[in-house]
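Reopening this one. Same input as before:
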Amino acid sequence: MLFLQATAAFGLEAVVGRELEALGLPPTEKEDGRVRFEGDPADLVRANLWLRAADRVQVVAEEFDCDDYDAFYETVRTLDWTKWIAYDAAFPVTARSVRSALGHVPTLQSMAKKAIAEALCEARGDRPGSPVPEVGPPVPIEVNVRKDRVSLLLDSTGPGLHKRGYRDLTGPAPLKETLAAGIVLLSVWTRDRPLLDPCCGTGTLPIEAALIGRNVAPGLHREFVAEGWPLAPPALWAEQRAAAQAAILPPLEKPLQGGDLDRDAVSAARRHARRAGVGEDVHFQQRPIAEAGAKASHGVLLANPPYGERLGDADAVHQELAALLNRLGDWSAAILTPHPAFPSMVGRKAERRRKLYNGTLACTLHQYLGPKPASLGGQDDAAG
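Same output, byte for byte:
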């Protein structure tokens, strides 16, 4: 059994927890920025392939309480690192420390590196101080210290899980794929309902929705650092990728809608949708928000409107978005923005609000809930 954790941006921990539950991996612990769970090597692979809102998946190699550098070194040195690190594997070490007596990060990093190298030499019968080859597939190690509690973590992901592989063009203030997926998962949208993003930029929100609607594993077409580990051999990755490929659902009955005033952004969005394999599932159109609309009822409006001086007149954009929301009378909406006046522009209080971070910028996800389609009855219920 492996002790694992998925890291996540602040505010998305509950979303990641629900994703893990859907994978049959119930969380054992939730804290700010991380969700703990247990599983076997196949579960480690599945978590990397399927988690949409998490940042990365780590193995918790060891945890212990410590407030002394010498004791830290000896504890790390006495661990059996051979079960994680192959003979010739590289093992880059990073460190971070919060409110701990072990507060000097460079010292933690260098001591851990030396202790692991010494442990590997001893386990292999090499002369003490012998160089470790470090030419094989890497096993990145993080020393994370919180209040004198040391966690030794192995990063199984490599480049963050937001690196799906489909986005190769960027526009101003791009929305991270993991955050976009989190917004979709927090909304009431399902694959049988219309969806509109009237300020879609390079398309991340509707593309992530289409991937969810088609049940495409977000990590299906990328590589992970753990693919070089003895713990998770290539055959295991091939097996899980084949299962993910077989789980893809047919195309959506009606394409999702994305629009933007910027012609280059719309062109990039179309390219990204094709690269993600959902080119026929999302329709992008160059048009201003004021001209956006939909004939269908009971849809979901998703948006991350532009803001900040670099991105023009944020007030006008938000007013147009508020007007659109009010025109779409029976639609629900999930709007991510830091604009403090947006609720007053809409003229009604959001049923749900959640603090999220777009990079380092604190934002609020405003969720407005319209009536459910008649077949479902009642009012929409946004995920908490």
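So the earlier flakiness isn't reproducible anymore. For the record, The CA atoms of residues 100 and 147 lie 5 Å apart.
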